[in-house]
Amino acid sequence: NHILEDVNKCVIALQEKDVDGLDRTAGAIRGRAARVVHVVTSEMDNYEPGVYTEKVLEATKLLTDT
Fold first, then answer.
1. Which of 6, 20, 32, 34 has its CA 20 to 30 A from that of 66?
2. What span, in angstroms and rounded, lies between the C-alpha atoms of 45 and 60?
3. At what angle do helices 2-15 and 19-44 cross, to 10 degrees?
4. How far is CA 9 from the centre of its chain?
5. Which Pfam family is one of those matched by this entry (predicted)?
6. pTM of the model as a whole
7. What is d(CA 34, CA 14) in angstroms, rounded to the nearest whole number?
């Protein structure tokens, strides 16, 4: 929910040509995404390796790389 709110703030910042607000909010999104990746990656340590964990870790890598 917080990421969605931040995305909406980014849209408003774009509309208002608020470069600093856009940069600040985009940084907040990157920080939240990094925390999600950290939590999910740590949680995968509790699961047996398999297709599910591989797919989840692939998704976290995709999120990290974008």
1. 20
2. 14
3. 160
4. 15
5. Vinculin
6. 0.78
7. 23
Separation CA 53–CA 9 (nearest Å): 33
What is the Cα–Cα distance from 16 to 24, expressed in whole angstroms? 14
Q: E strands within 1-66?
A: none
Residue 6's Cβ-count burial label (10 Å; 0-12, 13-18, 19+) is buried
pLDDT at 1 > cutoff 90 = no
Over residues 26-40, the pLDDT tens digits come to 999 999 999 999 999
Cβ–Cβ under 8 Å, residues 3 and 31: no
